[in-house]
Amino acid sequence: MKKLENKVALVTGSDSGIGLAIALEFAKQGAKLIVCYHSKQERGEEALKLVQEHQEESRLIRLDVSDEEEVEERMEELIKDFGGIDILVNNSGVNGSGIPIDEMETDTFDKTIRTNLYGTFFCSRKFIQHRKGLKKPGKIINISSVHEEINAPGNADYNASKAGVRNFMRTVALETAPFGINVNNIAPGMILTAMNQEAMDDPEVRKRAEENIPLGRAGKAEEIAYLALFLASEEANYVTGSTYFMDGGLSINIGQGA
Q1: Contact status, residue 230 vs residue 199, Cβ threshold 8 Å
Q2: What is each CA distance from 111 to 64, 210, 233, in whole angstroms?
Q3: Nearest of 163, 174, 171, 169 to residue 185 by alpha carbon
Q4: Of the residues 158, 226, 238, 244, which is catalytic?
Q5: 158 tagged catalytic
Q6: pLDDT tens profile 31-77
Q7: Any idea what DSSP says for residue 140?
Q8: Cβ contacts of 212 within 8 Å, gap of 6 or more
Q9: Are 166 and 243 in contact, with CB atoms under 8 Å apart?
Q10: Between helices 119-134 and 156-176, what is the axis angle to 10°?
Q11: For the whole model, what pTM was predicted?
Q12: Residues 139-165: tens digit of each pLDDT
């Protein structure tokens, strides 16, 4: 039997990158997928086609996780349509602005926090209400970042949002453990997706970045998906409140040579 047979999984931001890789891996393991896009419908439709090659009982929705009312309405519809959602992957997010804090507009900071942190809150809250109402367990997986621990200048908005996701996850794990709801983070390092487009386009940029990674290379979205599959499966029923760094050793290499 496949690891996620008869499960329903909502993966936000699953029209590309890490989100799509997770959706594909879950579909291969039997889950019915709710593929989400924010603004690029055509890309979402292409992602759905790929997912449906493995699991036909999947569908596509547009979802802006930063919009509280939209999250409430769309998730309520999905719960009714699918009869429930078993797994939530909070993957949707925006990258850091690259702007020093003294030059950053409030709207810039707000957009990052609203998407990365509030979006995780909105989706998790609705999911937890749903699972507690059913009196059934569930799995929440947040795609965080090494920047929940490592700070980078010019990214105060992103660093703050991911650090917030870290402590949000830990608190929610404590609150939901009595109900059998597992909550964990995956913290990717340098992964070859659109968030690292410059490194994908410029070999020199990529080479310089990879020199800081003990394993000597950037990661692939599929590698994150394998870890997400473990956390979504029954094999991880005793795992909650943890962040899994998947960064080739980058986070333990900071400070070497000091």
Answers
A1: no
A2: 12, 29, 33
A3: 169
A4: 158
A5: yes
A6: 999 999 998 999 999 999 999 999 999 999 999 999 999 999 999 99
A7: E
A8: 250, 253
A9: yes
A10: 10
A11: 0.94
A12: 999 999 999 998 888 999 999 999 999
